[in-house]
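Changelog note: in this version the structure field was regenerated for every chain. One regenerated record is shown below for reference.
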Amino acid sequence: MRVDHIAIAVKNVEEAVKNYQNILNIDKIEIEDVPSEKVRVVMLNLEDTRIELLEPTAENSPISKFLNEKGEGIHHIAITADNIEEDVARGQKKGMRFLGEIRTGSYGRKITFIHPKSLNGVLTEFCQSSPGK
């Protein structure tokens, strides 16, 4: 397993991208709206990992709630899963709590989140790329 990305909740992705471009040498930026998660995702691709900027697209988005309660900042850490179903089953057997079922996230990846109380207060995402990506 490896860190896939670190997600940062922001109020405005355009402004945040400018800030990151001022400090980081970013060649590749991917943008996607994910209606099922009520979020706009901007993926900043670095040499060996990625930074994901998350902007809510609805007032009832989990990212809106996060921003209202905590302000802008790190939202979660994502770990690449080779077989997300097996990783989730193993975690559940060891007492890990998950937030919702495995579902489709940005870029067609399978995702699910481990409850922060299971990992020392850190929201952690498992994500698995679709075949061929």
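Spot check on this record: The chain has three helices and eight strands. The longest helix spans residues 13-23.
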